[in-house]
Amino acid sequence: MIRPATPEDSAAIIELVVAAGMFSADEAWLVEGMLAGYFDANGDDGHVCVIDDEGDGPLGVAYYQPKPATDRVWDLTMIAVRPALQGRGRGAAMLRGVEEDLRARGQRLLLVETSSLPQYDRTRAFYAKLGYEEEARIRDYWAAGDDLVVFRGAL
Ligand SMILES: CC(C)(COP(=O)(O)OP(=O)(O)OC[C@H]1O[C@@H](n2cnc3c(N)ncnc32)[C@H](O)[C@@H]1OP(=O)(O)O)[C@@H](O)C(=O)NCCC(=O)NCCS
Known about the structure:
Bound molecules: coenzyme A
Number of domains: 1
CATH topology: Aminopeptidase
Strand content: 25-35%
Shape: globular
Order of helices and strands: EHHEEEHEHEE
Structural class: alpha+beta
Largest sheet: 7 strands, mixed
Number of strands: 7
CATH superfamily: Gcn5-related N-acetyltransferase (GNAT)
Low-confidence stretches: none
């Protein structure tokens, strides 16, 4: 079941995104800060964090937020599924849920930032499979030899 994340889910979400390789252990504080800000804002910032939970805590997580100063454009800031459960449709179901929510609210575009490194080949294949198109690249953005790849999905 996909449900809104609660403050009690924070530690498990952080553990999940690090285990999935979205953030290194050294970067866990970034996610911690993002979630703390999210729960403090209590919806006022328009951000949304949902988890895939079958009763035992998060198996997957998705976080999305409106892009300031745009007309109904959103960023998918993070999406991750527990490594042992990847490749079984959970990520696709979460992304479809995000799209449904945004479409129902009349939103226009969903953008996703990822990396050109080979370890993200499957991640890029995931977005392409779900109909997202590679729209832009900034070379050497994350680090030398590691480009920013932006995928675009029309809602
Ligand atoms: C990217 C991610 C969220 C996709 O979720 P998922 O549940 O594994 O993906 P799904 O099963 O719904 O979709 C599978 C499709 O995506 C691709 N895919 C991406 N990652 C995959 C993986 N680890 N295993 C198998 N397929 C994967 C394949 O094209 C696959 O298609 P197929 O099943 O026809 O072969 C998940 O693999 C993940 O958490 N990856 C690590 C973190 C990450 O890269 N997050 C995005 C950062 S921008």
